[in-house]
Amino acid sequence: MSAPLVLGIETSCDETGVGVVRGRQLLANVIASSMDEHARFGGVVPEVAARAHLEALTPTLTAALAEADVALDDLDAIAVTSGPGLSGALMVGIGAAKALALATGKPLYAVNHLVGHVGADVLRSDGTEIELPTIALLVSGGHTSLLLVRDLLNDVELLGETIDDAAGEAFDKVARLLGLGYPGGPRIDEAAASGDPDAIRFPRGLTQPKDRERHRYDFSFSGLKTAVARFVEQRRDAGLEVPVADVAAGFRESVADVLTAKAVDACLEHRIPRLLLGGGVAANARIRDLAAERTTAAGIELRVPPLPLCTDNGAMIAAIGAALVAAGRAPSAGGFGADSTLP
Ligand code: KG4
Ligand code: ZN
């Protein structure tokens, strides 16, 4: 069989993504975001996201098929994100994928969203291939996870994750606190560019010696967010101006420091000289720079897929679907629902 032609549907958070791949080749990657609708709330509202997926799914699907220049009938399989994510949002994609599979008679594959982020790397056009095992640091508005990937389809271990807010969520909340708007990540990146990252030292979550036992590779950003809020409040109460650029730079430094330090530690402990970054927060300039600096110093290869493949998208889900088909795996049983189990 030639490389399988697979359609992938992603609706775990606020992006409605539909992608089409032929094996490792990217044919279409169409994304509709409900970000603007969440802007007035300063963060993703699950109910709003689910409704937006319902409205966006058919046009996104139609656009992806047109971009790939394929018909539903041509497909070898359909793949859909089954979790982790917002359950109402996931249900929209899962329901649509099941209906499509039923109507076309195509096999349907449930794909883990985090595995999808790692799988995005196989679609890059520079001809290089991801080498396994690898450590993967996935950071977005919905998740902050450190994975050890030995085999994409069979052996993915969660080393740690956030115990409260996702990193992107922290960016969004701090940006709102500083009056910078939404989404917070790019706004903070912009403001921080003219700030001094050492002017204010904010706490580094879960990096105390006592955390090395239970939370070695876990993350926490709610204490950091509170520290920023307290700092801003004290300045305002004292009638002083808030040094927005310095606060943004100090906050960003704390997040970048913790994320990259733990990721590099995981590479060293497991003797894996490879680190893959993924998720929307991987767009952050300081996180990228610090990751590059620290991996180079430790002799670790750093891979960052191009940004449209880093953020939530349907093509990465299709890529995993294609790998499952190529491996001869049976389609998922029809009764699956939202599920965040890793392979
Ligand atoms: O992967 P993504 O598109 O998926 C969702 O979680 O929806 O990530 C979006 C998140 C948002 O929280 C946004 O603030 C953050 O990624 N983000 C950034 C940057 N660009 C986007 N965070 C930090 N720095 C950035 N430059
Ligand atoms: Zn994601």
TrEMBL record:
Fe cation binds at H113, H117, D312. Gene3D superfamilies: 3.30.420.40. Residues 25-318 form the Gcp-like domain. Keywords: Acyltransferase, Cytoplasm, Iron, Metal-binding, Transferase, tRNA processing. Its cofactor is Fe(2+). One of its GO terms (molecular function) is tRNA N(6)-L-threonylcarbamoyladenine synthase activity. Binds 1 Fe(2+) ion per subunit. Pfam families: TsaD. Its main location: cytoplasm. It is found in: Cytoplasm. Substrate binds at L138, V139, S140, G141, G142, D172, G185, D189, N284. It catalyses: L-threonylcarbamoyladenylate + adenosine(37) in tRNA = N(6)-L-threonylcarbamoyladenosine(37) in tRNA + AMP + H(+). Its EC number is 2.3.1.234. NCBIfam families: gcp_kae1 (TIGR00329), T6A_TsaD_YgjD (TIGR03723). HAMAP family: TsaD. Required for the formation of a threonylcarbamoyl group on adenosine at position 37 (t(6)A37) in tRNAs that read codons beginning with adenine. Is involved in the transfer of the threonylcarbamoyl moiety of threonylcarbamoyl-AMP (TC-AMP) to the N6 group of A37, together with TsaE and TsaB. TsaD likely plays a direct catalytic role in this reaction. Belongs to the KAE1 / TsaD family. PANTHER family: TRNA N6-ADENOSINE THREONYLCARBAMOYLTRANSFERASE, TRNA N6-ADENOSINE THREONYLCARBAMOYLTRANSFERASE, MITOCHONDRIAL. This is tRNA N6-adenosine threonylcarbamoyltransferase. It comes from Lysobacter korlensis.
